[in-house]
Design goal:
The complex is a heterodimer of chains A (about 110) and B (about 110). Chain A has about 110 residues and is mainly beta. In chain A, about 0% of the residues lie in helices and about 65% in strands. In chain A, the strands form two sheets. In chain A, strands 2, 4, 5, 9, 10 and 11 form a six-stranded mixed sheet that branches. A five-stranded antiparallel sheet of chain A has the order 1-3-8-7-6, with no helix packed on it. Chain B is an all-beta fold and about 110 residues long. Chain B has strands spanning about 5, 10-15, 20-25, 30-40, 40-50, 55, 65-70, 75-80, 85-95, 100-105, 105-110. Classes of the chains: A mainly beta (about 110), B mainly beta (about 110). The interface between A and B is medium-sized, with 25 and 28 residues.
Amino acid sequence: GIQVEQSPPDLILQEGANSTLRCNFSDSVNNLQWFHQNPWGQLINLFYIPSGTKQNGRLSATTVATERYSLLYISSSQTTDSGVYFCAGRGRSGGSYIPTFGRGTSLIVHP
Amino acid sequence: NAGVTQTPKFQVLKTGQSMTLQCAQDMNHNSMYWYRQDPGMGLRLIYYSASEGTTDKGEVPNGYNVSRLNKREFSLRLESAAPSQTSVYFCASSEQGSTEAFFGQGTRLTVV
């Protein structure tokens, strides 16, 4: 079946620290996305990363599709990075590809 | 660009009442989705529409119906609301196939 697993489930950091979030996915999943859900509940697209590495400021992501995992790196964390980080992959259902989510990593960054 | 727009943003219903959540996208996407988000559960798919004129059940369809009104609009209806349907509902859209999905701002629904 379609499986997307995230770790760790919870993470607490001091401002300025670095962190790595992991997403493992089953072999029926492809085309990874990373989202940040801010404290107001908005889902913000961070990366669309089927494979390879992308960087956007202090954030970067790497997907190794052949080994079925993706990593999100947050460097020099800030309090505004707090929230929940989701990865989602496309799993095949019938004739369609459906975005399937992990349960998220809840991040709290203390000043 | 508005992207994906959901209405309403907040709603309180009494048990047994009905309502429709509206979703519209202006990106000319073929596929649209409805998810619900509950604490600790991530986002779970309720229904999706791979293209105009088609709809299919997702992981948690019971108690819901959907209508793909046209290419832009995809509505979610609760015929007889139950407290278990208290949740945050998200609509999303994407091109058909394996491409990036975009989400609306969510609807926070409370059923009392």
